[in-house]
Amino acid sequence: MKKWTKEIEINAPIEQVWKFLDGSVENMQQIMPQVVENKPIKITEEVVGSVYRQKYREGKRTEEYDIETLEYSNATNEKKLKVGFTLAKMFEITAFYELNKINDNKTSFKYTVTNRPLKWFVKLFLLFATDKVVVEFLERVKNVAEAETSRS
Description:
Elements: E1 2-10, H1 14-21, H2 25-31, E2 35-42, E3 51-58, E4 61-74, E5 78-87, E6 91-103, E7 106-117, H3 123-127, H4 132-151
Antiparallel strand pairs: 1-7, 2-3, 3-4, 4-5, 5-6, 6-7
């Protein structure tokens, strides 16, 4: 299994950043443009255990998978969302988003991804995997949230 953790400071209020992770599909698409659909399949009162069917477009191919909420916390100064899904029956992936309020206009965003191969031959692909995708995602969230903050 591979694991990457990166952290970044965002010059935007915590609620502003949170809405891209825990909001509408339109908000989600601003930071994850490849997501074309995010439909609720099973919603639980406590959020943990909720399942969404997500469609993700990579080039001309569209993948569909179910994402389960594994951890959820929406406090004023600290927010957490952990989801898990199986991609193409080859990888078991978790994404863990942690937001901490630094002050009214600054948020710390920590992103942890795990990737576990489910077939022996895909283990080779992980040998060459880097944190590039994780770093690019953090930068995109920072840029989108800060751009929206400067507009308001």
